[in-house]
Amino acid sequence: MSMYDLTTHQTNGYIDLRSDTVTQPTESMRKAMYEAELGDDVYGEDPTVNRLQELSAQKLGKEAGLLVLSGTMGNLVCLLTHCGRGDEAIMGNRAHTFSSEQGAASGLGGIHPHTLPNQPDGTLDLRQIEAAIRGDNEHYPRTKLICIENTQNSTGGRVLSPAYMSAVGQIAKQHQISVHVDGARIFNAAVALGMDASALAADADSLTFCLSKGLACPLGSVVVGDEDFVHEARRNRKILGGGMRQAGIFAAAGIVALNEMVERLDDDHRNAKTLAEGLSVIPGMTIDPSIVETNIVYFELTAPKFTPGAFAARMKERGVLFSAGAARRIRLVTHYGIELHHITHTLRAFSQVLGEAA
Ligand code: TLP
């Protein structure tokens, strides 16, 4: 524990705003994991995995679910299921599937990404989507898929509305192609909108959501879709080495997460808003708090005295952790374990460090 005694749920002693992936499992998750009934899931015989998959499908309004190890694995399994080699998938130039998965879709699947610019609100322009869908011509790859990310991480955890999701679904239907939703944080979107996540998945052929972000599980994501899709996705999970045995040991935490950890995401959103509003009055950085809708806050470090790395190092000395590379646009993420008093401490530390720079 650091000299500040800052956090209740993290073991590193920092107010760790690097990501919601740093969350630790709750007491009831640990208990459920200890008590989980297990079987061999490659035989389909782990009752806890089966329960999590059914519960996930039910929450997202789909026929079936498939437990995978990570969001990256879930997205890749889905892309491989929708597309063959040389097929094209439309996605945002700031989508996680495009920028942060090592180009896995093309590297491992031969899938050709067709990127469109993410708008500041996280969406892809509907006319641009329509225009990007290829006609039948022997020169062209075949367009098979539209990938949408909700919430959209790198534009600031932006929430895509059910109306937008269904407009994308309509376009896909007209052109007989599919929609995949990278819903790593779909429950953040649902809670921000005050609706069931199923309303956001209604027009998706597949969706991946993460258990190991704001929902605080130690690992895991779930893919949902119809029975036939999940049957094929299961084959693709296996070829990627994702066939698991007594996986109920962590599926048990997933069940607790879906039952106990969704509604509290609202606390993370409120804390993110408070953080953004506090940051907006500190000289040396710029931020528009009005665009903070969920648990992700981006600000621009304008104080010329600091490189992002030097700034992060000074904040770390004051007990606050965030990632900083070369870019002056810096991300902070709120999550389980970050409470209002941590936000207050963080704002004070920002003021002090940037005050030195004035
Ligand atoms: N995001 C991580 C990093 O990879 C950037 C984070 O800290 O935000 N889709 C979205 C929208 C994501 O944000 C992430 C992870 C993933 C997929 C991949 O999930 P994992 O890390 O479980 O493979």
Written overview of the protein:
The strands form 3 sheets. A 7-stranded mixed sheet has the order 2-8-7-6-5-3-4, sandwiched between helices. α3 (71-82) crosses α10 and α12 (265-279) packs parallel to α14. By secondary structure, it is of the alpha/beta class. 41% of the residues lie in helices and 15% in strands. The protein contains 14 helices and 12 strands. The model has no long low-confidence stretch (mean pLDDT 96). The chain folds into 2 domains: 15-24 and 264-356, Aspartate Aminotransferase, domain 1 (Alpha-Beta Complex); 27-260, Aspartate Aminotransferase, domain 2. β5 (143-149), α7 (162-174) and β6 form a beta-alpha-beta unit. Residues 19, 21, 70-72, 75, 96, 100, 149, 153, 182, 184, 210, 212, 221 line the site of ligand TLP.
